[in-house]
Amino acid sequence: xxxxxxxxxAPGRSHVTTVVNSMADYTTVMEYEKGNRxxxxxxxTDWQLSNETRVQAxxxxxxxxxxxxxxxxxxxxxxxxxxxxxxxxxxxPVEISSNPNVEVESKAAGPVRSTKITSKLSASVLTxxxxxxxxxxxxxxxxxxxKIESQEVTIGEQMLLHLETAECHHNGKxxxxxxLKMTDICAATYSRNTNKKSNLKNLLYLLGDDIVFMSxxxxxxxxxxxxxxxxxxxxxxxxxxxxxxxxxxxxxxRLALQLSKLVLMSRLTWPNxxxxxxxxxxxxxPANPPQLPNNKKDSxxxxxxxxxxxxxxxxxxxxxxxxxxxxxxxxxxxxxxGKLALCADFQYVxxxxxxxxxxxxxxxxxxxxxxxxxxxxxxxxxDKKMFMTSMNATSSDISMCDDLLNKPFRVGFTFPENxxxxxVCGPVDVANDRTNTxxxxxxxxxxxxxxxxxxxGPSKNWCGNTLRCCRDDCSRxxxxxxxxxxxxxxxxxxxxxxxxxxxSRLMNIWLQAKKPALKTVxxxxxxxxxxxxxxPKPDQFHPLYTEGRGLRLTTTANPGLYLQQLSLLAICxxxxxxxxxxxxFIEVFVKKQAGWVANEVDFLSQSLLVVQPPFSQSQxxxxxxxxxxxxxxxxxFDGSNKMTNLSPNFKIKDFLFSxxxxxxxxxxxxxxxxxxxxxxxxxxxxxxxGAYRSSTANLLNLNHRHIEELHRFQAGKAVELTxxxxxxxxxxxxxxxxxxxxxxxxxxxDWSLGIGLHSSSIYVDLRPQNGKHFIKIWNAGGNxxxxxxxxxxxxxxxxGGSLISSTDLEEACKKPILGEDFxxxxxxxxxxxxxxxxxxKEQDVCKxxxxxxxxxxxxxxxxxxxxxGASAMDTSDIMVDTRKCLVDNCGGCSGSGTVWLxxxxxxxxxxxxxxxxASKPFPNLHNTVAFYSSTNTNSMVHHLACxxxxxxIETIPLYAxxxxxxxxxxxxxxxxxxxxxxxxxxxxxxPLMELLEQELAMRASGKVIVFLETDKDVDVLxxxxxxxxxxxxxxxxxxxxxxxxxxxxxxxxxLRRKLNVWSSSxxxxxxxxxxxxxxxxxxxxxxxxxxxxxxxxxxxRKIAAQNWEIDWLESL
Length: 1116
Prior knowledge:
The chain has 28 helices and 44 strands. The termini are far apart. The strands form 13 sheets. Strands 7, 8, 9, 10, 11 and 12 form a six-stranded antiparallel beta sheet that branches. The protein folds into five domains: 62-133 and 143-164, no CATH class; 182-235 and 245-286 and 297-361, Muramoyl-pentapeptide Carboxypeptidase, domain 2, CATH 3.30.1380; 382-589, Muramoyl-pentapeptide Carboxypeptidase, domain 2; 618-799, no CATH class; 839-1104, no CATH class. The protein is α+β, with helices and mostly antiparallel strands. The chain is elongated, with a radius of gyration of 44 Å.
């Protein structure tokens, strides 16, 4: 097969064009035994990217792109079987889905831009099994076909392009404004550096042959000063006396740094050419003015070794590189060189086209990237002060190390054990060197003398840069701010420096306590190493040294005796990784860290350090500009250890974009997802690349995304979720679960949810709360009906009170005691919650009332059938449940016990059957239902609740059917006239009336009124209130009216305590979205008075029914 594709990308000024050819062979193997298939396999071999692959790239800014394709290939192969005889050929379908992608990454590190283009190819193969069934007596062959599972084939990966270019895009400028002189740009000059030892200390000597110095030749004449021999500058030499060194190789640190950048960029632009210095430091006495430039003020720059005349050679003969060097006088070449000089941070660049060279100069000796303290934020200034205070501290608490110091730690041991430094600290991203000034300036020069630092090496050798002499004395920190002069042994990350300072303090305390007579200190053998010094060989240093995140340590005396203690103290000093590497030294490493002090963000299972990327990648990981005004920006973290658990169900890899190292993540997102994991009954996951997206990654499909989904991926505040089967019902349930589980905690901190419905996923993000709206939803291609239901759910959440979300879903969502059909019914009545019945008496009562209960039950069934309506229900429909409710289960206690449970199960099913069968079990219950404590025989609100168009439990037809049953009585003994309630009292309570009231609450809709006459009524009506506020999603609001002797605050507090318990302990699968809104008002005094007057007749009947025993005694 062959696959060709072209890619053109143009972010900014960059473009990438590729043509990739891929080829492969496939082999299908089938084995037959006695005419039946025994094995079958598909093998894909010799996949390769052909040599015809063509790639071009011109990346002028940091970019990272991933271009993915899918290519379907279907083949029809031919199969011939040779067994007893030759059979006809048969088709053998094979489908290959080829999935090529091209990854383009370009990033700059100082003056160098690295661009890589990689092609990866994978495929899946789906074959159709062909089984010929041949009959020897027939000439025909039957074919059976059956698809087998797709086989995933990893094909390979190939680097199409790795290009290093000069990072130089200076808008076409090739020199500075020529109306300005050096002094105009760089202000006044200072004292000239004369060829005297006292002044030469400010100059540095350039090594190597990367630059050709042609201006001073050994021609027998004097140079610089009369009587001084001219030096041969063509080859460098380092001698004891600077006065005998080549003057043109003597420069200020600032000029040395800029020249090193120019060397690097010119080498990348012209690999076979060299820079040629025509004139540099000039110590010219007044008698020799021709050696100075025409402008005498500018000539002082040469006297200070801050100016240079430089050109570029013609292409060099590789066989004889130093022969016949001459300047390239092409104006085009000089333009390019001028552009490179500007990119190398020379402040003054002038082209001298007549002589084909540039005149370059640098300004005052200050760091080129010196930060303006006024640009630092208050937080950064505070952190820096905290860091310096910590570094200047002279004491530490070693007592926390006591247990640790008694543990063995031998050569070969590491902390943490069984892990590598890269796994713990993260691998190198961009190696720092002096030419990468922005990243290099973020390192810290250790200024204290409590540590001994080994020299970089002999000054005749180069260190860090081929132009730079090694520092042969690092005993004192450099007093200058110029990075060129810093001793690399003292250069390290801020996190590493703070750990080293703490280790020094701990070591001194330990020595004073254990070995007071011993004079030894910690010695640094190796610290920061520049990229040019690293070569990946077994005997080389760890690459973490190139980022200033590693130290090689020993002691100045008897290291073999004290390295174990030094290792343990290093662990105590909080180095992230400690390795007892050899008998002569230990190695310590640290993680990446942003800023001056460590800032850790706590996730559910892990704390992560806030980091900052290399300067060249800072735009790639920028916080999205449209969201920068929002508070609560999510931090950036190192995602190199992808398998780190952030929570019980999620790892770093779930939030990390493909082939991207860093990521942002708001901890609230993770907490939200964990709650959803606990609540959602099915499996769900974050879609691939469905969380954090870097700046470039976020541009993918940007024009096709919903306007609400443009920026929050990049902020680490959005995820895309999907379920296993991706159907609309499960997506709806997932979105509803997100709202239930996440909104309550977000609302508490004034944040809200955004949810977008897609065809096979949902988008979820965090956003600042806008007024009272804490959920924003939109349809981004999802099912319209599903979106309508989601909007209805969202509206219910907004119009209700607090969201109903259990804190213990496993417990809350256990199967309801009465079954899922009766999830809203409470087993416990408002009666006593404990049982005091005498079992013997209870058995006697049940036995003696058996016949009476049978009789009353028959009468009750007749009334039920009559109330249900003509032919709506017959005896067989309710006989079993009615007997279990009234006859078979007798005794027990109200609200507890096995008998009460059995009664409740049967009675609830009986009521359900009636309500399902009856033609009109209830009147219109919309905006008409009211509740009050119906057990109160002296109610003042009965008239308000049950009259004036309101419907209460006492006015529904079923109440009239049940009440006579519950009022029925029996003779205690046949020979006596004493009577007791048949289905009441302590001997045989019935749940029927309590269940009827709860059913009424569940079937009400719209507005519901609840009257409370005493503080205790909140408890008396608790089961009704729970249904109205938690379960019944048809209720719009509940209006509570209280009597004049009650306080609104007390009732509100009592009700809210119950609602808090209910909303956090109810299974959301059965409940409303949010607690029903409610209001509390006092009943007007006049209205209450009239209601009390009109309720007297009802109250008298209730009192008479309650006092029937007294009336009976008085009648005797």
